[in-house]
C-alpha cells in the first residue's frame, strides 16, 4: 500500500494553507506508519523582500492538533531564502538529511504549496539526499485528487473524505469571523412572497417598481436625503404625491403580498395599503425602522441574499448533501491591513468553499466591481479550490460579457467565476447552475 511507505510527510507552506491541511488529514487517516509532519515555511527577511509564512504553518498546526494522533509530531523547517537554490539545499540538509533523520522509513514530499522555486529546489534536494526512499505528490485543484509521481492518482475526490467547517476554514487562514448584520430581519412571509415573484418571472417589473415608485417616494432622485422624516413630510405636499401613492395602493397583487409580509412595526405602508408618512413627532429611529431599513435595505437588495441562501439551503437538504451554509459573514484577516469583508452566502462542499455575492444592480460596472470582490475573497480563504459565484439582475445578454471581461482581466481561461443573470434566478435554474459549477471541478 503506497500510503504506508513513509514515516515522514513534508509539506511546503505558501500563502494558501488549505492544501496542506487536506493532504495531512488524508495521510493521517491512511498511513498508520506516519510519525512526523514537516512544515517547510519561509522566514521573514525584509532585507530581501521575503514574506514569512511561519504564521500560516502555525495555523495548520493549530487546525489539526485537536484531531491529531498524539504519536505524530508536527515540526517546522525554516527556509532563509526561498529564491536561492543553494540556501534551500543547505536548510533542507540541516533538518531532513539521512544523518539527522536516522529513524525514518521514508519521506514523502507533497509540493502543492509554497512557491515554484521552493517546490523545485526542495524536490531536487530531497531526491539527492534520499533517492528511492523519497516519493512525491501534489493535490490537483481540478479533480481534488492526490497524484503521486511514481504511482499516478491514488485517491478519489477528497472533498468526499476531508471535511472542514466554515469556522475551521477561517481560522486556518488566520481570519476571524463574526456575524453582525445589524439590519438582519426574519420576515418569512415577505421572503416567500419575493420567492413567488421571482418564480413568476416578475423580477424586472418588481425592480422597476421599487426604483420608480417606492424609492422615489423616500429618496426622490435616488440620493438619500439628510433628513428623511422632513423629506417624506414635504413630499406629501407635492403635486405628484397622489399619483405615486396610488401606484403603491394599486400595485400588482404580487407586490402587495410582499409589502403585507413585512411586520407592521417595520412596514413602509399603512393598514389600508397607502404609504406611511411619519408625523413631525415620530423619532428618527422609527423612521429608520419603517422607511430606511425595509426600503433601501431589504426591498431594494437584501432580499436577494436571503432568497439565494434559502434556495441553497433547501436544495442541499433535499439532496442530503450535509453542506454547512451561512449568510452575511463578516471576516477580518489579522495578518492583513484590509478592512473586514462581507460574504453574502457561503457554503462548504467537504473542504471546498463556495462564496456567493448578490446584487440587484443592473449596471455592468457595479456588477464587475462585485465580481472582482468575490474572486478576491474566495482566493483569500479558499485558494484555487474555491468557487466564486456572482448573482445579479443583469439582462442575459450582458451576463456573458461581464463574466468574460472579468476572466480576461484575471488572465485565466479556467472559468473560475460563475456569473448569473435575472433569467437564471428561478429556483431550479439557479440551483442547477450553482451545483454544476461547484461539482464540476474546473
From TrEMBL:
Pfam families: CARF_Card1
Signal peptide stretch: none
Limits of the Card1 CARF domain: 9-131
SUPFAM superfamilies listed in its UniProt record: Restriction endonuclease-like
Domain of life: Bacteria
Family annotation (InterPro entries): CARF_Card1 (IPR056339), Restrct_endonuc-II-like (IPR011335), tRNA_endonuc-like_dom_sf (IPR011856)
Name of the protein this chain belongs to: Card1 CARF domain-containing protein
Organism, as annotated: Dehalobacterium formicoaceticum
